[in-house]
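hey so i finally got around to running both of the ones u sent me last week. sorry it took forever, my laptop kept dying halfway thru and i had to restart like 3 times lol. anyway pasting them below in the order u listed, first the sequence line then the structure token line for each. didnt double check formatting much so if smth looks off just lmk and ill redo it

first one:
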Amino acid sequence: MSTALLALASVLLATMLLRMPIGFGMLAAGIAYLLASGQDLGLVAEQVCNGMYNSYVLLAVPLFVFAANLMNAGTVSERIFDFCRILVGPMRGGLAQVDILVSVIFSGMSGSAIADAAGPGLVTIRQMLKKPEYTPGFAGAVVVASATLGPIIPPSIPMVIYAMVSGTSVGALFLGGVLPGFLMAALMMLVVHWIAVRRNMPREAPVPRSQWAGLIWRGALPLSMPLVLLGGIYSGAFTPTEAAAVAALHALVLAALVFRALSWRSFWAVVMESARASATITVILAGSFMLNYALTAEAVPQALAQWVNAQGLSPTGFLLLVNLLFLALGCVLDVSVLLLVFVPMLLPAARLLGIDLVHFGVLVVLNMMIGLIHPPFGMLLFVTKALTGIPIGAMMKEGWPFLLMLLGLLLAITFFPPIVLWLPQTMGYHG
């Protein structure tokens, strides 16, 4: 390891121990690298500006964030919840089943696990806690697990970022997440049914047929969002980046003009929250561009690829190591950091082994979603605790069946790439 690379690693570790925001920590580490290697500090601005300017696809990220916040500010979560009660409410563990179906639908609008937990998840937790058969830990565990569907079922903010760093088609990645996402949802519903039967949970009273028409009409307009979004992308009407702008406009029209649930005060709050979230991601992006410059200059990705090749690893063996790495890092590092720093280091090795980058991308994103819910530092656990007050220990105790199910699905996708690749190939988006 060169002196400059050692300086970079030391400063990055020090900023993490000092709990400095990770984006600023990466920028500081990049500056330390330039100082130690005797390079012009102006490279910081050059790398950041060139990285931002050349990444048109990144415009989709703040727009999807804005669309998700608009949906949460309106009455969309409640409308979808009422609609889903008609479909799965009478099942055993009905409210938990409703939460999973709501997450499937909301995933087609937001692309964010945090937005799912903070919006629809909060609605369903409040409903479940009104019933004695749903313990707080179980209610929180269901919401935390189902929120992981957000970035798997398209659209997906992590997949947009992965497409930027890997050069992979956003459309192919979105299609690659469809089948794994629906498998996740189906398996979660089976887990809920198994728990409900074991605990002899009573069935929910069905929604009276006289109310169906009104509830379906209330839920129909929010359901138009994924249809417009994905239909526009795959019909060729607009690109994924343009689709994000369409999603934001669609959400604004629904929340402000159709539902009339958005005042000027709440609209301004949505704008500020979206700006804060987008600024956080942008600072991390800026730091990652600088960090990736240093790692590339030191040939770290190429050295890693040569090491993998020297070990004689098979593609499956490499993917299993990647799973272990991201499961470990996913509970302590932000998803954006993993995508922008660690994925670029692994891509040369993946290409060398002939691993399909669409398969690799969906696998990496699923790993990160599992990292958001497993102890000790799963971000979704902390978000749900902050919103509801449910103890993390109670959610962890009730959440292990969902975690085991997700790990099983992760292994299935690792060993059987067609689970990811069949739909993109069938639709002609991937060779």
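and the second one:
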Amino acid sequence: MTTNWNVYKISPIDHGWPYLKTVSETARMIGGNWAEAEINSLVADQPSVEEFLESYHVALEAAVAAGYDGIKRNDPVVFWLPDTLMFSYGFVFKSDHGGVTYVVTPNSLPWLNA
């Protein structure tokens, strides 16, 4: 599980949300893939559902600590970035208060500070 999260509080992102999977959709996908790997005795190259959801809760706490009020305009979504030998996931939360968008990721995204 990733414990060092970067939180970026950015201007509202109003377009493109339908192209990203929600946390619930992603958890279901990971659960199915992980279970299939377990059944077929394959080495799972992804987190278990429990690890993913634990990461989500830690990322949510980090967003709240940065000012996210928890009143969501959109369901939280997951995005993926290439990392060394695998893809890492992050989360995006959009507050109903002013539409402020919080990007929480284990990767540094310095352009979001601009």
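quick thing i noticed on the 2nd:
The chain is about 30% helix and 25% strand.
anyway thats it, ttyl
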